[in-house]
Design goal:
Blueprint (H helix, E strand, L loop, with lengths): L20 E6 L5 E5 H8 L5 H10 L6 E3 L2 E3 L7 E2 L45
Antiparallel strand pairs: 1-2, 1-5, 3-4
This protein binds zinc ion (ZN).
Length: 127
Amino acid sequence: MTSRDETPHPETTLEHYPWIIVRFRCTRCRRYGDARLARLAEKFGAAETIAKLVERFHASCPHRPAKRNGRLAHRPDPCGGYCPDLGTNIPPDLPPSISGLTLIEGGKDEQLAEKPARNDRRRVVGG
Ligand SMILES: [Zn+2]
C-alpha cells in the first residue's frame, strides 16, 4: 500500500480517512448523514472501513417497500446509500457546525409566504 495515495475508497479505514467528516448520501431517498470521523472511530473502531459504514447506512434506510394507493410498491434496490467523498481528493464542504450523526428523513417543505398583495382598494362607505 502506498501511503502517498490518500484518495479514500471503500476499503479505506477510519484510521486513514482523510477528512474529519464522513458523509453519507442516498440516491433514492433524501436521507443523508454527516458523521464526525472521531465519533465513528470511537463507536466502530479505527479499523472500520467506509464500505462497512455504508452498509450500516443501508440497513437503517427507510426506503423500503411502501404502500401507495393501497398497492405495495416494490423497489428493486432498497437503498442507494453511498459515500460521496470516495474516489476524490476534493474535501467535503462542511456546514459550520456538525454534531454527531444527523439523519434527516424526508425533507422540510419550506413554504415561503408570498408577499401579500397590496390592498389599495378603498372601501366606499355610504355614498
Ligand atoms: Zn436510502
